[in-house]
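Journal club side-thread
Mid-discussion, someone asked how the predicted structure for our own chain would compare to the paper's figures. Pasting it here so we can look after the session.
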Amino acid sequence: MAQLGAAEVRDAAAAFARAVPQDARLATRVPDGLPAGDAAAAVVEGIVLARYRFSLRSEQTGPVALRSIVLVAPEGELGEVRAGVARGLATSRAACLARDLAACPAGLLTATRLGEIAEALAEGSRLQVEVHDRAAAVEMGLGGLLGVNKGSVEEPRMVVLRYVPEGEPTGHLALVGKGVMYDSGGISLKPSDLSHSQMKNDMTGAGDILAAMSVLAELGATTQVTGYLMCTDNMPSGSAMQLGDVLTIRGGRTVEVLNTDAEGRLVMADALVLAVEEGVDAIVDIATLTGQCLRALGEEVAGLFANDDDLAAQVSAAAERTDEQVWRLPLVRSYRTELDSEVADIKNIGGPNGGSIHAALFLEEFVAGRPWAHLDIAGTAQSSAERSWVNKGPTAFGVRLLIELALAFAPPTVQPEQPPRGLA
């Protein structure tokens, strides 16, 4: 018989929660076969995430809201179980928050509003929040964020989150999130189909980081974490960014824009430079970045790129613990020449093939050789059907992964040199 793991317990708990949709109070025994705390956390996550619902209906429909979960365990394990329940509640609450943000219509959740939500979440916690408006972005030279925002009547926001643990930090991790509140494609307009209506979730990376960092103090994280949420919508208008425009990213590198729908990498480039300037030990970015990653890996596996094997292994280990699957894809150095521009330092797109790799190579240009990993969650951020603890719609994929990464983070032992451009 295969050994029982947290993933199997989480799946079983989710199946149980879905089987009794009209019950507000659930009870179950904590299964044997793995540490009681881990089992309890997995049970709570499975039940809470499976029964999650987002609705703006005037009348309640579907499963009733949960009021209580009772876990039965031997008396000698109660301390471990209580700790596991607290951990499971924190991680599932964070995931539910991220699902709420991704599901919220873009007309309600603007970049300004996301900044306000971040400030509200910081009250009474160790989370420090700085919200930078358009004027601040101009002063800071955030040319990528400002360029994407040119077509919008809504101001952009860069939300910087800072978590500093009590005592000496065991490392300093930067998280960079794409926060495109609605992505029309800009002048490179997306087709008018169902996928277009889902572009309110193009801020999932930023929402995941906000949700994950909101519970780090509660979970006792000893890593210092700085999060950058790069928030704007991408709209077509008379003032919108045009094909052929050249943007100047913070730090001075120039980008020729040949597709305004390849905008996520532009807003994140500014934040990657800021993270390098802050001197962090490693950078992880997360974004609904490329449709080609969805085509390659489907809805259940995210693409992972990294310039550092140690950091890649830490991200993969966190993914294994949370059952949020990632697959490491190659940074093919020879593809970098496809991003060469005749008028700027780099183009924002390459050729018709290998688009996910081109996007990762573009982002790597701005990390100055610092340990860096990139999570492309274009496929995993949205599910077309219910499965286990994942509901149809926004999934909050990455929230629990980022929490686990921060809790176990160790600075990579070797700082890689900047790779030669264009070499395999």
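Post-session note: The chain has 13 helices and 15 strands.
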